[in-house]
Amino acid sequence: MDAKTGFFYLFSAVLLYAAFRVITARNPVHAVLHLILAFSQAAGIWLLLKAEFLAITLILVYLGAVMVLFLFVVMMLDIRIDAVRRGFWRHFPLAALIGAIVTFEMAAVLMTGFRGMEEPKAIAGLVDAAGQVLPYSNTKALGKLLYSEYLYPVEVAAVILLVAMIAAIALTLRQRKDSKAIDPAEQIRVRAADRVVMMKMPVTQQASSEAVSAPAAEEKKQ
Fold first, then answer.
1. Element (H, E) at 129
2. CATH among 3.30.1490.20, 1.20.120.1200, 1.10.3720.10, 1.10.760.10 for 1-81
């Protein structure tokens, strides 16, 4: 067994263990961490298959953005494990049935779907005008394929993502009527004259003679 085969079995074993722990971990944070481990092992397998673009995309997009966001959301939510476990046995038969179907389909594909197929061969490098062989780039070939033959689906996906991003921004920036938030810039620029106004008002009732003589009598006693 060569080094490539050994790394494949190592990545596969860790990937299966991490995937199993994702669905069996009791703590949601631990489940997300095992999912991050599973994605990293899948990226390693893609590197062994010479699909470096997919491996780097998996690391940057899922591990660097999506899974970190999931981890922050799970840590911020007040998830009660006892309330989640109440309906476990009620939904267990349906979950077991779906799991059995998925397992049967994967076994059918692995046992019968790859027979008679040869190992994919590496594409030879391109030849330039001088007759020299250029090194083959998987990322460059994938980019040419996406922006030539699959240009229309890429544009449709880009428009859908743009609409989703605009909708998320619109939902976040909408103002609530019951919000009592105050702009800090307005608090800094405030002046005393803007908050307190001194007004002169005419006297509406004269003070009685008893009210005026009472303080004078107290002063004489002292």
1. none
2. 1.20.120.1200
